[in-house]
Amino acid sequence: MTNHNNDSGSVTADPHGDDQPKTYSAGRNWLITVPVAVLLLLAILFGTSAFIHGQLLSLGGDIWRDYNMLRVDMAEPACDPDMDIDARVAQSQANAAEPDEDSLFDAGPSDPAALRQSLEAQRSQCVASYERYEYNQQVTSTSSLRAFRSLELGMGRINQLGQEFQSYILILLIMIGGFVALVLNEQIALRVPRSRLDYRVSAGSQVVANIAMAVSGFAWLRLDSGGDLTLNALWLVTFLVLAIAAGYRFLRVPSHASDKGSLLYAPLTVPLYCWLALVSILYFFLSEGYLSGPAIQLGKMLRFADLYTAIGLYVWVGMMLKHTRIAELLFGVFRSWEMRPEFVVIIVVLASAWPTAYTGASGIFVLAIGAVIYQELRIAGTYRQLAVASTAMSGSMGVVLNPCLMVVIIAALNRQVTTDQLFGWGLYVFALAAVIFTGFVYLTRKSRPHLATPDDAIPATRVALGPILPYVVIGFAVVFVYTHLLGQSFNEFSAPVILPLVMLALLGYDRWRAQRLYQAAIYKADRGQAAGPAYKPSGFWNALRAATAETSVLIGALLMLMVLSIVFGGVMERSGVMELFPDQFASVWYATAVLVIMLVAIGMIMEPYGAIILVSATLAPVAYDNGINPIHFWMMVLAAFELGYLSPPVALNQLLTRQVVGDDEIQAAKAEVANDPSFWRRHEGMLLPITVMATTLLLVAFAPLVFMELF
Q: What are phi and psi of 11, to 5 degrees?
């Protein structure tokens, strides 16, 4: 397909590029792709087992009375249901008439009426126990209950096993993903290695970082004799494996690396997680002499293992989506209306807010869906700088919307706010950001607004919607199974489990449909009605394998950054840096200004979940004490974090965009406008997201203060 830009001639893009079969070495298939797929499927199984187990318990209660009592075979009661109460009372009175002279605590004869009442109660309880026992024996002897009970108890054991093994799944994902990202030089850094010096500096820093973390892990393994030795040993093995892989990469520089290197630029190729590791190691090892300190901080990550595992599942969803034609079909609706590229951008970025709310963080969304968004925007004719900018901030507006997990964590850690309050005001913040983004794109557009006439567009839209309907039906069918058969609503907690299954079903249908279209094209080619297809599209298993291979690289890069971000957060807490922040300010205006700067800085260097925990413990009390409304403060926090993720020197979401679209495309975007006289045009990929989010943050932070001053 060929589209025409206003500034750079024609741009050729193949919307079916990911249809082509992908081939990998047997080693990567069996040592990387298969284990990652198994781990992700286990995470889905364990998550689903909890839903199924809960539904089975409810169903068992509806079918059998007192099902909880029937889940196990009861032992026969040891009491006597035919107790002779009169004889027991008489015996007790006779015994009381002959006091024991050696007893220091003889209370004398008992009250016969009270004793009879007590014995009658005991006999009633015993009779009830036998009734329960006989009911249990009668019902549990049926094959239907035994079969149902075996299924329910088995699912319960799977659920319990999942809770126990969630941490192991996460660490194994970090180890395998980190290994492949390291070997393929795909770790997140400010600059991609190009020269031999770059590669050696990058690999050498990773050798140092991982060996230091392994030393910390070994020190903690020796100290924590009462803890989970297997988990501690697995962390140690993880860092040793990564250190060995980094050593291999240090010795085996890629053949395409140039000989020209610069000592000035080489440090920029050091992965971000290595910088965090270096600062953390220097503090714990040298300042505190606390070798096990970094390893201890990793326990914070394992307490939220399910959240971090969900990141891998979301990325898997995105990579599977990339290997379908769903995005092409959806963008076909826009093409029916002949929209200008800038207005396609507006629709895509605003529409991305809702799925971002389910993924829980903008960076995760960019990593999961960014490649698809960028590719389709380019096919729609969007010039590269605007496509890069739109991809980088595609998830930034959704973190304030229901049911974003960041907001749920904020409400859980801060009793001053509730999720209803935050999500309610989040809608206003989203609307504000949407208006600002639309305004900037409109003011800096390169083309005049245009839409096709309804007479032309509506028929084309109906045609474009036709192929989409089967995907919609399949997706709703999978969600229906969960919401109605398993009784689990589609929310931020169930989405990581449900969405991969939805995408597996959609990928299967899409690959079947691609094969059908291929056969139709071959038939037309045989009849001389059209040119034959250039290649046979990949099947389901090939596409799934390719998506999983790409997933392993991306989750390895992101999770390694999160691991060391958590360790670095421990440095921030223990070092007392946050305590240097003043408790009282001269005015609420001054407090707001200083807090905004601090929050943006935190957003630049920390992953979102760890940053929220840090801010809740340190800056939030300062804000409350200086008269900043808690809801106002947390809206500021979310907007400031998003600005931090888009701003240099780190600009994490920009780096993640480069990670998914490729450094070659980023360099092509720069070359495309290298001679443009406009500073904005030359740097639009960076400036547009920063300008939009900075304007949003300033209005969110200070507009309420202006309102309070005036009214």
A: -125, 120
pLDDT band per the 50, 70, 90 thresholds, residue 195: very high
Task: Assign 653 a pLDDT band (cuts: 50, 70, 90).
Answer: very high
237-242-244 Cα angle (round to 5)? 95
Q: By the 8 A CB rule, do 498 and 479 touch? A: yes
HSE-CB for 140 with a 13 A CA cutoff: 18
Single-letter amino acid code for the residue at 432: L
Dihedral-angle region of residue 662 (phi above 0 means left; psi in -120 to 50 means alpha; beta otherwise)? left
What does the DSSP 8-state code read for residue 111?
P
CB within 8 A of 511, min separation 6: which ones? 324, 537, 538, 539, 540, 543
Q: What distance in Å separates the CA atoms of residue 646 and residue 388, rounded to the nearest whole number?
A: 12
Residue 333 and residue 528 in contact, taking contact as beta carbons nearer than 8 Å: no
The backbone torsions φ and ψ at residue 271, rounded to the nearest 5 degrees and listed phi first, read -55, 145
> Using an 8 Å Cβ cutoff, are 379 and 365 in contact?
no
**DSSP structural state of residue 283:** I
Report the 10 Å Cβ neighbour count for 57: 16
Q: In the structure encoding, which two tokens stand for residue 299, read together?
A: 């326990």
Contact in structure between 489 and 483 (CB atoms under 8 Å): yes
Q: CA separation (Å) from 89 to 78, 92, 382, 434, 661? A: 21, 5, 95, 83, 88
Residue 252 neighbours by CB under 8 Å, 6+ apart: none
User: What whole-number distance in Å separates Cα of residue 293 and Cα of residue 309?
Assistant: 24
pLDDT at 206 over 90: yes
Structure tokens of 172? 């194994």
Closest CA to 367 of 307, 319, 309: 319
- Mean residue pLDDT of the chain comes to 87
Which structure tokens are listed for 241? 């494996």
pLDDT higher than 80, residue 128: yes
Residue 293 exposed, middle or buried by CB count within 10 Å (0-12, 13-18, 19+): buried
